């Protein structure tokens, strides 16, 4: 008979965190056995999330935020959406964690321990807006398959880590490098160890930006497990899928990276606009790079009531991928006229910006407040859902909240 193998101590530790109690006789738990307690895991407790967050899927975990939970200037963990494509790593041993740099375009491959990275390179802190490419997918018609994200797959946290550029310089990169691709410790839903759940990347020009980090800290603390502990890539302003979590390797490629979810129609939109419902061949789909201009009213919550004659203070955030937001406006007449809001400068490039305004309503009744951002490229958010695309990406329509004014 084959000897039974038992769960390791570190795996037990992370299981205990998820179950929410010490597994007293855990050392007798046969490997591959899942504690029953996991079936009733409370994701809110396990991930430290606000009770208003919305679970879209539990295998893999996909948990959405809400506009009113995103009111902070820097988003706290409790309000940050989780988007997983596979099964999160459990057995994290920070002390033995390594990141290997390889690929056609490194001079030679090189492996760093986490400690090497932290001690060898200067650390920087930046805020970064991370938005899932599929945020707002729920509004597309005909509908697109995939998680039906509403508004809440976006956040702006503060990340501390080393510049990917500094590490790439230390590794030594050949002249023919065009793209990087990441590898991570999460596992494929099928359980097949040869399959990666996701392995995306970006062109060298993005990889070499000051703000592109291998980060160890989020909001001044160790990155929470669900958000990429112990190290994650941060590439603000691009689809958040580029910001790989649980990074174990970076490949420097002499062609566009061809990892999981880089090819076919994943994270791609038709190169030229198409009519809703059109079938588009893979060759006519282009990789999404910078995310489009967008904004969110984070206060007040939609559906509020206001006494007649009282002004309403609104506030929120605006972002525009690689660009800056230069103008923020609101409308209370369904877009017939617009009034400018106060708009702050970003804390740093690729961080979202904050806006506020005082709104006066002329009479009793039902209103909607719409918000519209304009970027430094002159692009404005569309009032309605923009160009349909097969996978339901890049919905940057104006956010609206409902307000009733009563005597
Ligand atoms: N290793 C790994 N990295 C990943 C993912 C993943 O499933 N595995 N999901 C990506 C996607 S699609 C998004 S939108 C963001 C979500 O980041 P968050 O969970 O911190 O919100 O992580 C990206 N990085
Ligand atoms: Mo995503």
Automatic annotation (TrEMBL):
Its cofactor is Mo-molybdopterin. One of its GO terms (molecular function) is heme binding. InterPro entries: Ig_E-set, MoCF_OxRdtse_dimer, Mopterin_OxRdtase_euk, OxRdtase_Mopterin-bd_dom, OxRdtase_Mopterin-bd_sf. Residues 287-405 form the Moybdenum cofactor oxidoreductase dimerisation domain. Residues 87-259 form the Oxidoreductase molybdopterin-binding domain. The keyword Metal-binding applies. The keyword Nucleotide-binding does not apply. GO terms for biological process: sulfur compound metabolic process. Keywords: Metal-binding, Molybdenum, Oxidoreductase. PANTHER family: SULFITE OXIDASE, MITOCHONDRIAL, SULFITE REDUCTASE. This is Molybdopterin containing oxidoreductase. The lineage of its organism: Bacteria, Pseudomonadati, Bacteroidota, Flavobacteriia, Flavobacteriales.
């Amino acid at each position: 008979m084959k000897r039974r193998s038992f769960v390791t101590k570190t795996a037990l530790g992370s299981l205990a965190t998820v179950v929410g109690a010490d597994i007293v006789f855990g050392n007798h738990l046969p490997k591959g056995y899942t504690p029953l307690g996991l079936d009733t895991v409370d994701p809110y407790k396990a991930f430290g999330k606000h009770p208003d967050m919305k679970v879209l899927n539990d295998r893999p975990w996909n948990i959405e935020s809400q506009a009113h939970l995103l009111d902070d200037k820097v988003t706290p963990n409790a309000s940050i959406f989780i988007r997983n494509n596979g099964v999160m790593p459990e057995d994290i041993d920070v002390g033995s964690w390594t990141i290997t740099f390889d690929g056609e375009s490194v001079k030679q491959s090189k492996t760093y321990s986490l400690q090497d990275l932290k001690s060898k390179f200067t650390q920087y802190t930046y805020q970064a807006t991370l938005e899932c490419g599929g945020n707002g997918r729920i509004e597309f018609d005909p509908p697109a398959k995939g998680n039906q994200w509403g508004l809440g797959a976006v956040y702006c946290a503060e990340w501390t880590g080393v510049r990917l550029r500094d590490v790439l310089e230390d590794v030594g990169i050949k002249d023919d490098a065009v793209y990087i691709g990441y590898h991570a410790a999460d596992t494929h839903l099928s359980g097949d160890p040869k399959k990666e759940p996701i392995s995306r990347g970006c062109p060298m020009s993005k990889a070499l930006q000051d703000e592109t980090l291998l980060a160890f800290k989020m909001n001044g603390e160790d990155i929470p497990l669900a958000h990429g502990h112990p190290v994650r890539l941060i590439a603000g302003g691009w689809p958040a899928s580029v910001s790989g979590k649980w990074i174990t390797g970076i490949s420097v490629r002499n062609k566009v990276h061809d990892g999981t979810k880089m090819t076919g129609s994943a994270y791609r939109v038709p190169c030229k606009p198409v009519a809703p419902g059109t079938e588009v061949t893979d060759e006519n789909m282009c990789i999404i790079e910078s995310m489009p201009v967008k904004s969110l009213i984070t206060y007040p919550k939609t559906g509020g009531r206001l006494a007649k004659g009282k002004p309403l203070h609104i506030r929120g955030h605006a972002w525009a991928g690689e660009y800056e937001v230069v103008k923020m406006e609101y409308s209370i007449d369904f877009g017939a006229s617009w009034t400018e809001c106060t708009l702050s400068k970003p804390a740093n490039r690729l961080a979202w910006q904050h806006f506020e305004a005082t709104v006066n309503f002329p009479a009793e009744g039902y209103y909607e407040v719409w918000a519209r951002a304009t970027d430094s490229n002159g692009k404005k958010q569309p009032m309605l859902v923009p160009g349909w695309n097969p996978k339901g990406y890049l919905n940057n329509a104006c956010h609206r909240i409902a307000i009733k004014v009563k005597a």
